[in-house]
């Protein structure tokens, strides 16, 4: 009787494991570096598919040129979900930290996060750039540069203008 119960328990665990593997690894969900952080594809990560390949390449060119001139790294991400995080700010901070945007020694990374679905925008700044790009300046860039363009449906133009404004502040 006890062997039968153990066999049923093992069978249930195996069935659940197969269901989990098929459900969460079917390609419909972005890959994560741990249980709740999306794995980056590079410096431009359009998980909402709101940018064309050409637009992504244009943003990448701008970020790479800035990095070659300053060593500062800027990543851009579009998100459609918070996954297991309680709010957009905490999730984007976790992404920036987990992805290691910026060099470890200088902590000179910036993450520009946009969510069309959630109607959220956030600019996360590494501690090494806090005096060059303050929270107040980030909010100003969001309010005056990114949002007006996004309100008209021009996501690429808004992200690009925001990226250029961030770079202007850092230069």
What is the arithmetic mean of pLDDT? 85
Distance N to C terminus: 73 Å
Model regions low in confidence, pLDDT < 50 over at least 5 residues: 11-33
Outline the biggest β-sheet.
Answer: 4 strands, mixed
Q: Nearest-angstrom radius of gyration?
A: 20 Å
Number of separate helices: 5
Strand content: 5-15%
Order of helices and strands: HEHEHEEHH
Class computed from helices, strands and strand pairing: alpha/beta
- The helicity comes to 40-55%
Shape: globular
The total count of strands amounts to 4
Strand order of the largest sheet: 1-2-3-4
Task: Describe what you observe in this structure.
With 171 residues, the chain is an alpha/beta fold. Residues 11-33 have low confidence and may be disordered. α2 packs parallel to α5. The chain contains 5 helices and 4 strands. The longest helix is centred in the first third of the chain and has 23 residues, at 2-24. Strands 1-2-3-4 form a 4-stranded mixed β-sheet, with helices on both faces.
Provide a compact summary of the structure.
This protein is of the alpha/beta class.
